[in-house]
């Protein structure tokens, strides 16, 4: 070799190249190359490049000739094949061989990369990338290329002298390369792992001009001519596979790989692939299924078709993973969805209502999955509409068919409602995987069912009373019934006794669930509060902890804070007052006994002797509005207490005065007659009426005289008397009247006579009992007849105030706002209390404008402006 | 026949005894609360001065804290003293 140094440039190439060329040809043909030859090739290339100015260009040219020659041979081999399979197979074998070599052949010619003479040939390979590339390459390929670099630098310095060490290094390099080369070529059937390996190798040679030269030549000479045939054949194979025939999938994979790797555009490697292979694949797929899907649907019906489409979509996804680059997956899926689903959308959707009706959850689920793939959500929307319509109509139909029972019995009603709700929730869960869109559809529909007024309604006066216009807007009775149901669970009733604490909790939760759908929550809260008041005053709560729990729950579900706070306040009152009332006893006792000895003994005495009296002092603000005072003449025993209590309270709390609510107070009396002795729970009014006979037990007393004796107002007296002469569900009434043929409290005349039923007894199992306890309170009347009307008015009044308040609140922030936006925001603020009607909003806006809180814009009648 | 009372639960509510409907400071009704409070009643009590004027406790305390020197009743300008009954 050293001899060559003295020779002229040209000769060096001529002398060295023919030898090396043989090795190159061997490499191309994948013949065995010995370590020594491989190493020689490295050395030869370096040598020429070093000593021959134009050496690099010459080598490049020589190499090009050889490669083209090789390719032409390969081409003739491929072209010779007639059959499609054979053509593909041959092509792929040749291509694989060549492609493998394209990873190794450039290695010895690395020197060329740095040569400016070669650069023009490679359009994108820059010189800087040569250095960077080799650095990167060394990092990737590890030992092999590091020692390459070592060999190169040492030979650059002083070729021969340092040869001993460099030879060692490059030997190992060649060995490493050769082993991996033979390994790769032997497994050129290219399993996935092999192609992965070659792709990691790509890093080394990717930018190499030699590799580029190889691939470009291949592209130009073979691929260009036969690519259409290749593509066609590949599609045919895919088509056959779709029809169920087994083919060698590797053939298609091979074609795809050659498409990808042959790209000469460095920016976009997949350009050729995308423009030819992907396009053809998509078209073939679409064409195939366009035919098939119509066929399938006509033959097997829509339901079977959905299964088919689902199966095919999955199958194609798997196939795509095999045959396509990852970048094409989405495009393919889109195209498939279009052909398989969107084109058949209407016929599929048409099945939806029937499926929902029959609760075919599996099929609905399938349909949902298919529709969910459609991008614009058109199918899903249609399904949601169907679901919504079904829930609404089914729910209403159910309610209407059972209207007889449920309008009477709030338990049945709520249970029915919950049953419906659970049924639909199950449907949404099973068929639609609890998809939020369907949950919304369910909620909307359920809202309609709950707030529907066709089965039963309550009427509220909607207008402002002081304007004198009165009309009613029907509202669903649902909130009232829900509150009644709550009451049944929380009060000591047969229902609440039957259930365990957990069951009651669960049911209360259910109530809250339904309450979420109720528009007019203020009505619920009002009734709930009335029931709660009753329970607290009568002490009939089944479980006081639960009472407080539910207040917290109401807070959690977003009930307006002032409603809830007021309820919480009521508990506080009851708790605090029960403390007070012990002290009260003390006082009453000492006043009665006129002694002032040791307080403690008296306290004890008072408990034992006077636990008969219990005073509940309530906070007027938090409890039900009882503006009306009902006068009544109390039995003497009670009448005496009243001033004492008032006196005591005055001392205890200066600046306050007590106001008695006798219509809420109640007690237990012992009723003794010839037959037996009975404890009766009665209201104070009933007590007052019964005490009228205490002095003249056998007299008949006229209505007029009773009124004088009790001092009760007319409607209250009528109601009280009616509860004593005609208490529901008891065999023997405590009072009798003359004439007996009176069917309603309104028919009592001034001279209707009443007298004690001396035969009164509690009847159990058809037998009169001598002792017993009976509750004559029934539902404690918390309000008088007039105040009940006022209560209904007050709901409306409160709504009006809330609406005005909310409008002002919004306008204060926004200053200017148009009608639509204002209404939307208003509903948002008020929705936890009630749903304001359009009419009411309009009226309140007018009122506020009239009173100069705001004004309309001069130019735009729909624009409101806040007036400070 | 004889009727005797075994036990009785009386129900009453209480109201403030005030010489006016509204608090002179916040103009809210005495039966409701001062502007800061949520619920009427014990948590937002009334207080009386020796001059017999009456306010929400929270209101008058706030007012007095704003007076640097002479603590005066906002209604009659007499110096303010709490009337403890």
Automatic annotation (TrEMBL), chain A:
GO cellular component terms attached to this protein's record: cullin-RING ubiquitin ligase complex; nucleus
Pfam families: Cullin, Cullin_AB, Cullin_Nedd8
Renumbered residue ranges of the record's region Disordered: 180-206
Superkingdom in the source lineage: Eukaryota
Pathway(s) annotated for this protein in UniProt: Protein modification; protein ubiquitination
Domain Cullin family profile: 477-725
PROSITE patterns (UniProt xref): CULLIN_1 (PS01256), CULLIN_2 (PS50069)
SUPFAM superfamilies: Cullin homology domain, Cullin repeat-like, Winged helix' DNA-binding domain
GO molecular function: ubiquitin protein ligase binding
UniProt record, GO biological process: protein ubiquitination; signal transduction; ubiquitin-dependent protein catabolic process
InterPro entries: Cullin (IPR045093), Cullin-like_AB (IPR059120), Cullin_CS (IPR016157), Cullin_homology (IPR016158), Cullin_homology_sf (IPR036317), Cullin_N (IPR001373), Cullin_neddylation_domain (IPR019559), Cullin_repeat-like_dom_sf (IPR016159)
Subcellular location: Nucleus
Keywords, in A-Z order: Isopeptide bond, Nucleus, Phosphoprotein, Ubl conjugation, Ubl conjugation pathway
Record field: compositional bias (Low complexity): 180-200
Family from the record: Belongs to the cullin family.
Protein name as catalogued: Cullin-5
Organism annotation: Drosophila rubida
Native organism taxonomy: Eukaryota, Metazoa, Ecdysozoa, Arthropoda, Hexapoda
Automatic annotation (TrEMBL), chain B:
Domain of life: Eukaryota
Species name: Drosophila rubida
Keyword Zinc-finger among record annotations: yes
The keyword Cell cycle belongs to this UniProt entry's keyword annotation: yes
GO MF annotation list: cullin family protein binding; ubiquitin protein ligase activity; zinc ion binding
Spans traversing the lipid bilayer: none
A GO cellular component entry from the record: anaphase-promoting complex
InterPro entries named among the record's database cross-references: RING-box_E3_Ubiquitin_Ligase, RING-H2_APC11, Znf_RING, Znf_RING/FYVE/PHD
Subcellular location: Nucleus
GO biological process annotation, one example: cell division
Subunit composition and interactions: The mammalian APC/C is composed at least of 14 distinct subunits ANAPC1, ANAPC2, CDC27/APC3, ANAPC4, ANAPC5, CDC16/APC6, ANAPC7, CDC23/APC8, ANAPC10, ANAPC11, CDC26/APC12, ANAPC13, ANAPC15 and ANAPC16 that assemble into a complex of at least 19 chains with a combined molecular mass of around 1.2 MDa; APC/C interacts with FZR1 and FBXO5. Interacts with the cullin domain of ANAPC2. Interacts with UBE2D2.
Pathway(s) of this molecule: Protein modification; protein ubiquitination
Pfam assignment, any one: zf-ANAPC11
Keywords associated with the record: Cell cycle, Cell division, Metal-binding, Mitosis, Nucleus, Ubl conjugation pathway, Zinc, Zinc-finger
Gene3D superfamilies, sorted: Zinc/RING finger domain, C3HC4 (zinc finger) (3.30.40.10)
Functional description taken from the UniProt entry: Together with the cullin protein ANAPC2, constitutes the catalytic component of the anaphase promoting complex/cyclosome (APC/C), a cell cycle-regulated E3 ubiquitin ligase that controls progression through mitosis and the G1 phase of the cell cycle. The APC/C complex acts by mediating ubiquitination and subsequent degradation of target proteins: it mainly mediates the formation of 'Lys-11'-linked polyubiquitin chains and, to a lower extent, the formation of 'Lys-48'- and 'Lys-63'-linked polyubiquitin chains.
All residue ranges annotated as the RING-type domain in the record: 34-77
Name of the protein in its database record: Anaphase-promoting complex subunit 11
Family as reported in the entry's similarity comment: Belongs to the RING-box family.
């Amino acid at each position: 070799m050293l001899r060559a140094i003295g020779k002229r440039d040209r000769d060096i190439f001529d002398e060295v190249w023919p030898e090396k060329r043989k090795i190159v040809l061997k490499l191309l043909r994948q013949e065995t190359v010995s370590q020594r030859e491989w190493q020689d090739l490295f050395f030869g290339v370096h040598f020429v490049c070093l000593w021959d100015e134009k050496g690099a260009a010459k080598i490049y040219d020589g190499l090009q000739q050889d490669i083209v020659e090789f390719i032409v041979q390969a081409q003739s081999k491929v072209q010779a094949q007639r059959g499609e399979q054979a053509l593909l197979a041959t092509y792929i074998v040749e291509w694989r061989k060549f492609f493998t070599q394209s990873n190794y052949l450039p290695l010895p010619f690395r020197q060329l990369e740095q040569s400016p003479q070669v650069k023009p040939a490679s359009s994108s390979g820059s010189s800087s990338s040569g250095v960077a590339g080799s650095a990167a390459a060394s990092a990737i390929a590890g030992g092999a290329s590091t020692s390459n670099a070592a060999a190169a630098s040492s030979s650059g310095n002083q070729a021969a002298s340092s040869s001993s060490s460099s030879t060692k290094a490059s030997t190992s390099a060649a060995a490493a390369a050769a082993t991996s080369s033979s390994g790769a070529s032997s497994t050129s059937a290219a399993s996935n792992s092999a192609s992965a390996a070659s792709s990691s190798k790509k890093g080394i040679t990717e930018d190499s001009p030699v590799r580029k030269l190889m691939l470009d030549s291949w592209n130009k000479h073979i691929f260009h001519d036969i690519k259409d045939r290749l593509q066609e054949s590949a599609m045919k194979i895919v088509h056959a596979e779709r029809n169920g025939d087994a083919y060698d999938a590797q053939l298609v994979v091979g074609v795809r790989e050659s498409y990808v790797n042959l790209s000469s555009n460095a920016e976009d490697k997949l350009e050729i692939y995308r423009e030819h292979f992907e396009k053809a694949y998509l078209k073939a797929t679409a064409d195939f299924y366009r035919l098939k899907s119509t066929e399938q649907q006509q033959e097997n019906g829509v339901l079977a078709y959905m299964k088919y489409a689902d199966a095919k979509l999955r199958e194609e996804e798997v196939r795509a993973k095999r045959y396509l680059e990852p970048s094409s997956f989405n495009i393919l899926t889109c195209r498939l969805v279009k052909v398989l689903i969107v084109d058949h959308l209407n016929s599929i959707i048409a099945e939806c209502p029937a499926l929902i009706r029959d609760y075919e959850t599996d099929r609905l689920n399938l349909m949902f999955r298919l529709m969910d793939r459609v991008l614009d959500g058109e199918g899903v929307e249609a399904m949601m509409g169907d679901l919504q319509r079904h829930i609404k109509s089914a729910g209403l139909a159910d309610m209407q068919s059972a209207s007889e029972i449920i309008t009477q019995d709030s338990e049945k009603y709520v249970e029915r409602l919950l049953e419906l709700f659970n049924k639909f929730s199950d449907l949404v869960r099973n068929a639609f995987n609890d998809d939020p869109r369907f949950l919304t559809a369910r909620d909307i529909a359920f809202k309609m069912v709950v707030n529907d007024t066709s089965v039963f309604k309550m009427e509220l006066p909607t207008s402002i009373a002081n304007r004198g216009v009165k009309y009613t807007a029907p509202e669903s009775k649902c909130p009232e019934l829900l509150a009644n149901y709550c009451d049944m669970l929380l009060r000591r009733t047969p229902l609440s006794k039957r259930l365990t604490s957990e069951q009651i909790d669960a049911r209360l939760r259910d109530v809250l669930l339904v309450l979420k759908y109720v528009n007019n929550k203020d009505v619920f809260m009002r009734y709930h509060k009335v029931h709660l008041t009753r329970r607290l005053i009568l002490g009939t709560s089944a479980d006081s902890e639960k009472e407080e729990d539910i207040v917290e729950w109401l807070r959690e579900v977003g009930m307006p804070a002032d409603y809830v706070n007021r309820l919480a306040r009521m508990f506080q009152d009851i708790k605090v007052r029960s403390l007070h009332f012990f002290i009260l006893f003390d006082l009453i006792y000492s006043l009665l006994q006129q002694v002032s000895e040791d307080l403690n003994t008296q306290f004890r005495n008072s408990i034992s002797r006077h636990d008969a009296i219990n005073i509940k002092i309530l906070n007027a603000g938090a409890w039900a509005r009882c503006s009306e005072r009902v006068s009544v003449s109390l039995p003497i025993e009670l009448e005496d207490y009243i001033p004492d209590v008032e006196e005591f309270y005055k001392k205890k709390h200066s600046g306050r005065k007590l106001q008695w609510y006798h219509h809420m107070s109640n007690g237990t009396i012992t009723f003794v007659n010839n037959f037996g002795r009975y404890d009766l729970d009665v209201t104070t009014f009933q007590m007052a009426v019964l005490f009228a006979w205490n002095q003249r037990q056998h007299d008949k007393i006229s209505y007029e005289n009773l009124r004088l004796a009790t001092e009760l107002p007319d409607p209250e007296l009528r109601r009280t008397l009616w509860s004593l002469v005609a208490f529901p569900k008891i065999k023997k009434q405590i009072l009798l009247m003359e004439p007996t043929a009176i069917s309603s409290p309104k028919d009592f005349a001034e001279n209707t006579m009443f007298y004690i039923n001396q035969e009164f007894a509690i009847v159990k199992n058809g037998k009169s009992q001598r002792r017993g306890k009976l509750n004559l309170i029934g539902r404690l009347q918390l309000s008088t007849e007039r105040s009940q009307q006022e209560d209904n008015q007050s709901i409306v009044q409160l709504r009006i105030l809330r609406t005005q308040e909310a409008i002002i609140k919004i306008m204060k922030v926004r200053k200017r706002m148009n009608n639509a936006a204002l209404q939307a925001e208003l509903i948002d603020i008020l929705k936890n209390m009630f749903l304001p009607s359009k009419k009411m909003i309009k009226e309140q806006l007018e009122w506020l404008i009239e009173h100069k809180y705001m004004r309309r814009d001069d130019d735009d009648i729909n624009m409101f402006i806040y007036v400070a | 026949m004889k009727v005797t009372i075994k036990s009785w639960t009386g129900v009453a509510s209480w109201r403030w005894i005030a010489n006016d409907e509204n608090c002179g400071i916040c103009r809210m009704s005495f039966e409701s609360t001062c502007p800061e409070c949520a619920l009427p009643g014990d948590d937002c009590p009334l207080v009386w001065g020796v001059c017999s004027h009456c306010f929400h406790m929270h209101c008058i305390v706030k007012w007095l804290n704003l007076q640097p020197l002479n603590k005066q009743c906002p209604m009659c300008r007499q110096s303010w003293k709490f009337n403890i009954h």
